[in-house]
Amino acid sequence: MQNSARSPRRSSVFLSLALLPLLFDVASLHAQVVVAPATPQVGSSNPVTAEPLISRPPTKPCVVKLLNETAFENYSTLPITYTPPAACPGPWAKVVLAADFTVTAGVQYDRTAELILGGANIFYGTTAEPRSALSPSWHIERDVTDLSAIFKTPQTGIAEIYNIVNSSYTGIIYGNAVLEFYPASWKAPAAIVPEVVVPVNGTGGDAGSVTSGQQITQVLNLPVNTEKVFLDVIAQSQSSDEFWYLCVPSDETSNLESCGNTAFRETEITIDGIPAGVAPVYPWIYTGGLDPYLWEPITGVQTLNFKPYRVDLTPFAGVLSNGEQHTVGIGVYNANSYFLVTGNLLAYTDKGRKRTGGGLISNTLTLNPIPSVDENLVTDESGTTTGTIAVASGRKFEIKGYVDTSHGRVETTVEQAVNFQQNQTVDVNPNAGPDDQDLLQTSTVDSVTTTRAGFLVESTKQHFSYPFRLSYHFLYNPDGTYTQKVTSDQQDIVSESKAIDGFEFFHNAYNEQVKSTDTLQLDASFNLTAAGIGHSSASYKSFNSLGGCYSRSLTAENQKLTLVTDDKGCRDDDHDHRHQW
Q: Is 488 left (phi over 0), alpha (psi -120 to 50) or beta?
């Protein structure tokens, strides 16, 4: 099992024009049609995912380099300088970050990767691990259009991949990164973007470290005509929290050789110390996690390119626009060791009014939920602990606020049901084996955001689901050798629909899944005697109500890609895509 990805690792329809800024960016719906990446090479061991590329407008982009064969070979940050593209002054239809990374063949751990510009996180992910005969290369993309405000002026920033290169760890990481600016046109109108971006980071300007009870905070001085506010947040598990989903109640950590505080984690957001929102923690597994061969070549869901979770803070917009200082905070509830946390606060302003104002009407959200724990464990005379652990947390809340705008009073209500459930079966002896752990976890968020402006009511419904199944078995063989078998099944399921006065005008959804299994053989000194023997698969399916559809599936065997299948999920027009997930 492996620990921190940052530190040195150890093994292991009819709308008034005045209301358009308030409602969904209808002009951007065309951008929901996704684009297939180039077909991956069968027989390759390079990292690969089934995810689509970011869709591009039909205009010719201006490209600005951020990294150019930049080497990451020590434990330091590297500077980035940025100058806006003179030939594409904006407004832009879209801005895309595209990056390529390579690790030289040899020995190296997976590392946390961040790109920060103007204080804002524009990319967050981890790197792939090499081996003696493999120098892995991979490509990532991220839609950063909503960060356009920081791209209007020259900026400095940092590229951060804390890496150690010495006689033991020889892999050097190289990176290339560009920003692509797509000019607006009649075919691709300018995106409606936040006028203000406020980075929320640690004291060093990058992701901040938090453990239970701690927060990273940022003082806000938002414009007095602020109308809508959102927070894009990422919380990355580190150290003994890397495998937080294998954690157990604190009174069983010794018996089960595991981390404590149960297997429940949650990202929590406050404004001036008041509960303002929550975000689920995705169970990412890095390329060195549990078994490096498990993720070669198909990596875990989002492993190389984390997706921020967007929290709607608009009910607080009236308060945040009062001209006074406010503080936003981000923490992770139940962190046993520590998480790295980063966020970008996005504020939209009212162009028809110099000052808005408003207030918070009601708020039923409480933080620090106490999960229910059902332990059925028995420890025998040999020290072997067997049984089950069930951990669950579930609650509903509603936050309502209003803003007095140039188009009247706008009332926003965010209603959410947040649920977490994990059932874990264990058979563990810390001294002589076995070490068997099986878990089934489901984390869901069901959200309805309602915006009322006079007689006009817009509603957005969202569903997030992160099913996760893991089986870890470490066997002590009679001849003194060891066998480890790991099986993982990760999913990322998201759907969204938008309606005006009860009439649904848009719907989209996607489902990504990665299944992997691998078996390792180790000698009596825990040295690996051969490459892992395993297989894996990945699938990504998405559609939207405008007719866009994407489908790709991958299979791999013993560290090589064996099959790529495209469009299979888009061929049957009789499918009711909305309900099949």
A: beta
